[in-house]
Amino acid sequence: MKAAEEICDASVHGAEIGSRELVFRPGRVRAGDFSFSIGTAGSCTLVMQTVLPPLLQASAPSRVRIQGGTHNRAAPPFEFLERSFLPLLERMGARVGLELTGHGFYPRGGGEIRARITPLARFGRLELTRRGAPTGASAEALVAGLPASIATRELEVIGRRLGLPREQLRLRALSNDLGPGNALTITLGYEHVTEVFSAFGERGVRAEDVARVAADEAFAYRALTAPVGEHLADQLLLPLALGEGGTYLATVASGHLRTNAAIVERFTARRISMTPGSAGVEVTVA
After folding, report:
1. Per-residue DSSP letters for 39-52?
2. Is residue 256 among the annotated active site residues?
3. CATH 3.30.360.20: does it fit domain 134-222?
4. What CATH architecture is 2-123?
5. How far is CA 256 from CA 65, 232, 252, in A?
6. 0.85 exceeded by the pTM?
């Protein structure tokens, strides 16, 4: 909220811990160089997704630096933005250069992502109803300040569950001073879409159990035909509503998707329909 306040000189009341009411009166979005330090391991990517749509509609290019957590539970990891979310925005006309300059894990934080954002007149229309041919699959396990054997065990589970050969399983040991931290990502690439699935190590949770969370999600997605997975489905709504709309086929209409659709409809003149079918849920922003 404070990042949104800064980029549009908003009048904000109630943006503090313990507040039960929030008032946000936006001003005009301004371009510029922005730096946001979360101060904890809070998600950099969620802040980026907050400021990105308005800055794409600013009058000039902007640069954004955000410090905090880059690989967090209940938030998209950096790889999701880079490989899944942004390529679809680029297909709609956006030009965003995204860079990971430092990893940040819970509870230490200290990671950093940067973006170079070139505004566009209007998001183009998106039609995404087919995955297309497979273009590749891989998994990567990150460890920092933890034994590399944790990542090895995770990758063994992924390899068996998804049938990935050893050369598509990557272990990356980061500097110990970034830890403790452990993140696992699975990337499934297709001609028209790339999906990223993730899981994060926790104290007291076995490496094999961490791996199964991501592996089961990826396995379930691969068994379906709809191109847009559960999390990407609700994140596409806003850019489509701000542009020329479009249609995509989602694997499921989650509660999060339905809630986001209701909120987008309240703040815009767009109408969002969801039609279940044998191949998935057809989501249309008109």
Report:
1. SSS-BHHHHHHHHH
2. yes
3. yes
4. Alpha-beta prism (3.65)
5. 28, 11, 10
6. yes
